[in-house]
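I'll show an entry:

:::
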Amino acid sequence: MKLTDLDIIVTAPPAPGWGGRYWILVKLTTDDGITGWGECYASSVGPKAMRAVIEDVFSRHMAGENPENIELMFRRAYSAGFTGRPDLTVMGAFSGLEIACWDILGKARGRPVWALLGGRMNDRIRAYTYLYPLPHHDLTTFWTSPEMAAESALDCVNRGYTAIKFDPAGPYTIRGGHMPAMADISVSVAFCHAIQEVVGDRADLLFGTHGQFTAAGAIRLGQALEPFSPLWYEEPIPPDNIEEMSRVARAVRIPVATGERLTTKAEFAAVLRAGAAEILQPALGRSGGIWEAKKIAAIAEAHGAQLAPHLYAGPVEWAANVHLAASIPNILMTETIETPFHDALIRGGIRVEDGFITPPDAPGLGIEVDETLARAHPYTGDGLHLQMQEAPCDYVNGNSFAGGAPVRER
């Protein structure tokens, strides 16, 4: 069995676009006609450039290779160009292709991917969701409204979720760490208070920041949130300064989580060695794929840390997250995005029920990708999957970040 053909589909989710402006899906085919699907979560270059990177990684390191030889193909990509170090874009390309290899291997053997990773450790996987607006909410004001957030939280908990994430302390800028405005701290406290008031102890609070503060600013904000005992404090400072993140972890009595912007075991191991986080959040379409994430999980296990795979993408990456989560002992929970388009794209192959996910038993990733639907929603814009603003923190008029909702462009 050899990898012979690659197809790339850049699909754009319909409004409001939860999951980003576009999703990069890859389809691999073997010489005996088996197809596998993967998803590349790489947003540092646009989809046109990313398509070229994916094609280069496949033709240079994978074409003609047995899809079983994942370790060999990883080492080729990781070492390409005499690098031998993490490369966010190359690893984003390889990750999606690697996921597709696992889909092929499972289908070739008639077994789900989790069965090839050591078997099913977990019969049910705890899911969490970001707080999204309800149909009657105003999309502009939702992101700074504790009252609307509380309504959304209660809706999530009533649907069975036991953990909910929100991040009201923007802005998200290209300028690196900044000191939060006092208003940012106040609105963050108000969010925690309003949400906890309606959900009580039925759900854990997950507080996100997208790495926007200096260590001193993150400590100020984190200490203000301590009375609400969030389950985690997500990426409190930019991910490139591990020592400063360790300083935050020592000063704040909330577990630190990080990882959506990291790639390969090399970067995650450095975080663990420094004591910078206790919860790791690899995005499998970026972190090196399923096998590399399995290694990250093993390193985390040795450090007493847990995994909560990240998802701000499409349902193919989600499926990979679910198979990893099913196979490891130190899974905490996995992120989910429930939209009709996510569900339709994989024909309902995996779903959240009462706040938990049951790993699929079908071969491969256990999903059937609706290729026609994916091609019917092409991305024609020129924006990146996610974009940060250039304007600095506004200490006068307040700050708002629309929850990852992209500008409506195609």
Remarks:
- Residues 88-109 form the longest helix (22 residues).
- The CA atoms of residues 181 and 396 lie 9 Å apart.
